[in-house]
Amino acid sequence: MKEDTLNKRPKRFGMVIDLDRCTGCGACMVACYAENNIPFKADESNKLDSINWMRVFKITNGKPYPHTEVCYIPMMCMQCEGREGDGHAPCVSVCPAVATDYDHETGVISQIYTRCFGCRYCMAACPYHARKFNWWDPAWPADMENYLSPNVSPRMRGVVEKCSFCYHRYQLARDRAYYEGRDEIAEKEYQPACVEACPTRAITFGDLNNPGHAVHRLKNSPNAFRLLEKLHTTPKVYYLTRRTWVRRAGDNYLADEHLNTARKRIIRQQGAVK
Amino acid sequence: MSKTSWIPEGVKRCSGRRFALGMAAVTAVLAWGVYAMFLVWYKGLNQTNMNDAYGFALWIWADLAVIALGGGAFFTGFLTYILGQEKLKGIINYAVIIGFICYSSALLILAIDIGQPLRGWFIFWHANVHSMLTEVAFCLSCYFAVLTIEFIPLILENPRLDRVPFLHHLSHNMHGIMAVFAATGVFLSFFHQGSLGGVTGVLFGRPFGYREGIFIWPWTFFLFTWSAAACGPCFTLLITWITEKITRKTLVKPDVKQLLAKISGWMLITYIIAKIADTIYWALVTAPSMGFTLMDFYSNNPVYGIWILIAEIVVCGVVPGLILITRTGRENAFLLMLSAFLAVMGCCINRWVMVLQVMAVPLFSFNEWYMYTPSWQEVATTILPVAYGVIVISLAYRYLPVFPQERELNPAD
Hints:
Chain A is of the alpha+beta class. Helices cover about 25% and strands about 15% of the residues of chain A.
């Protein structure tokens, strides 16, 4: 009964990242590597063929000193809901073998490594470059293999992988709740590794549908925005910043287009869809 | 009973020694491609210069291009068997062979391109009905089977094989029902050519490739089918011309070529009008709604300037289209072949931009354009189908009655 109850409450797990707090330290990336058994190359200077489920971008306002401002943007899979908000994310609808799917119970987009045959259509579809291909066989230094997480399966050469919001942590939290006779997991019971690792608490994670979760409130902040909203991918990762130039850098605007007007139009369109 | 030759009666072919020498040269190129192919299969896609930004690259372009150019088979078959253009029987065999080569090459390239080749069958087993690639895989495989069926009767017409009563009757009966296969081929081709257009057209996360459309089909779905029907026959004409130059013979009557060229010309000119309309709507409505202007896609990078759009639409679309629909243009052998060449180039440019430029365009204001140069392994495996095509055409020309008008046009043989 309890298992059924747990499964019958649809959630929309999402993230809110406060860019004004992010220092670009990269702790989230390191935590992600360790948590998810992400392999790395001896030379990681070419980021276009290295695997990183989360990557921190550095952007500037383009102004000369002393007016220069810097912002760091951590980017991972945006767990998009698609144009109609029905789970037809850019990557999900194109995968020819249903190797990636939208879980309507959690809002997390899965990746089935043993079903993926490496056509990379999902990578072509993703505007965030969140999907990474295993160009090489995964390899770790010999003694490091002893420290791989038993909860996450390593991926083989020739398949695509991406951020799963540490879904295994959700499974563990749910199992624990079931064992303890609870039919709901608490907000803090399921937090991805990057959230826990962030020293400035820039990343907040939870159920966007749950008014009791912090993300529910934060996503409605006037300073909240999502990346490339105009493409109508409907991401579940939100960003916060008070800086207008950062919000403008998060999307593409025509020269005469005002940021707030454009955003209001998008929100109106998405509201109409839902 | 005298021994029947392997070479069709009444035609002249080069000596076996000369043929073998020519084959050896092409086989060397083929071997280079095969070596690269096994290297990719053994070591993985790290042998390419693709990366996470360029997941689709040279191979997917080659796939799209050869399938479009192989479209001459389905469209010529449609004209010959369904619309009853009997005159085109002078070239239909060759169109089928070229189509067979193109489609088998496309399947081979796909087998090299996927990261887990042994799982290729998952596309059929775990099929996602929402994916354009699924539709491509099903229609492509089915149409390749149809092309094989269309090719078999021609193979059975080899003089030696034709002596076997069963094979003779099989070939005869297959010819009798070829209209059914031609119709099936047209149906399948319409969908997979369209689906290949849909592969990019549905990518709503990629403003350069995304197009609106009707129901589930973006405009590129129809444009790809249309352009394949227009440019495929031009490719058939071009290869026929090259074959004639190499063999130093006229193999197809000029009126046959001109009829095919005329139909291609009208297809091309109507296609290019639709393409211009599509481009205008995309530039003025679709792209701006996503925050992009037309020139955002054609500036700030070392390769993709507005020249590529002009080359595709004007130089390789409007110009050959206008030449092919005029009698004087068609009757001039040089202009005819120049137009066919330009149309083929236009189709290849279209497939190139719809694959590689889509990947190259940066989507964030803080990103640069993504540039890509293929590795030698990618180049070799892309040339591999060309060598394979030359070998198949050489064997077919030598041993099969590919051109029914050859004897009449070359009586000295």
